[in-house]
Amino acid sequence: MNAFLDAVVHPLQYAFFQKGLLVATLSGALLGLTGVYITLRGMSYIGHGLSHSIFGGFAASQLISAEFFLWGAGVWGVMSALAIITVTRRHRIGADAAIGVVTTASFALGIALLTRFGATGPSFESALFGSILGISQGQIFMLYAVAALTVAMVFFGYRSLLFATFDPDVAAVSGVSVLATDIMLMVVLSLNILSTLNVVGVTLVAAMLVIPPVTARMLTDSFAATLVLATVIGALSGAIGMYLSYAAEVPSGTMIVLIGAVAFTVALATAGRRRRLRAAKVPAVAVS
């Protein structure tokens, strides 16, 4: 017991770990909450796509000014999200195809620009894999602001988001502006990805948008409970992943995703056991 307490308390003496733990926990919670709407819409791929698209903005903005790379990446990500909505609505193209075209083109452009001109701001590796210890105070404030905006969106837009997620046609008939709701969600999602990019990186941010919501969905049939559980699972994945990252000297983003995957595996086994127990309780029906 003393060894466990020492393992928990000892890293907290370092300021960098305190900051990293806070950022990792908040990032996991934020991605878990937003990811519920994405996964229930069958758009899990968009997290992967937009993270790659924002990488293109990260590279392009550095050609103008490395100081404002976050602004450039953010604008680029929002424009990519709006382009996906526009292409999907105006043309006979599925959302997955639109996401694939827009975001992979942005990612390819980002790699081309960084290869040709180099990076004057954060390194190529930091953008791809995250660098939680290198996150600035300004980026932490941005994470706070995006978290507050996301909670406000879920709280005040709960009804419209719920309708638009499960049945857009009924939502439109009920007076909900599905287009405005979709745009709001895509903008907030882009900001979520941008603000957490330094924590888990381009290559892993999509995993944290998917794993906590899917895990939560296996544990409950309630939409409200799914929102809460996904947020908690994301936060715990971030916190535990940060501790294990410190102990094992493994990149924090990688460990956070691995902890999420363990939670998913446990939920999968638990859900299977629950189904078997329910089936065993159903009385057999005699067939004459």
What does this structure look like?
It is built from 13 helices and no strands. It has 288 residues and is an all-alpha fold. The model is unreliable at 284-288 (pLDDT under 50). One of its GO terms (cellular component) is ATP-binding cassette (ABC) transporter complex. It comes from Dactylosporangium aurantiacum. Pfam families: ABC-3 (PF00950). Its main location: membrane.
List its traits.
288 residues, mainly alpha, ABC transporter involved in vitamin B12 uptake, BtuC, globular, disordered C terminus
CATH superfamily: ABC transporter involved in vitamin B12 uptake, BtuC
Classify the fold: give the CATH topology: ABC transporter involved in vitamin B12 uptake, BtuC
Oligomer: single chain
The end-to-end span amounts to 61 Å
The percent range for helix content is over 70%
Class of secondary structure makeup:
mainly alpha
Taking all residues together, what is the mean pLDDT?
Answer: 79
Could you spell the SSE succession in H and E letters? HHHHHHHHHHHHH
CATH architecture heading: Orthogonal Bundle
- Provide the number of structural domains: 1
Per DSSP E runs of 2 or more residues, the count of β-strands stands at 0
Unreliable residue runs: 284-288
Assign the CATH class.
Mainly Alpha
* Beta-strand content: under 5%
Task: Please describe the biggest sheet, giving its number of strands, its sense, and whether it closes into a barrel.
Answer: none
Instruction: Determine Rg (CA atoms, Å).
Output: 20 Å
Number of helices: 13
Global shape:
globular
Protein name: Metal ABC transporter permease
Transmembrane segments: 20-38, 69-87, 99-119, 139-158, 170-191, 197-216, 223-246, 252-271
Keywords: Membrane, Transmembrane, Transmembrane helix, Transport
Organism: Dactylosporangium aurantiacum
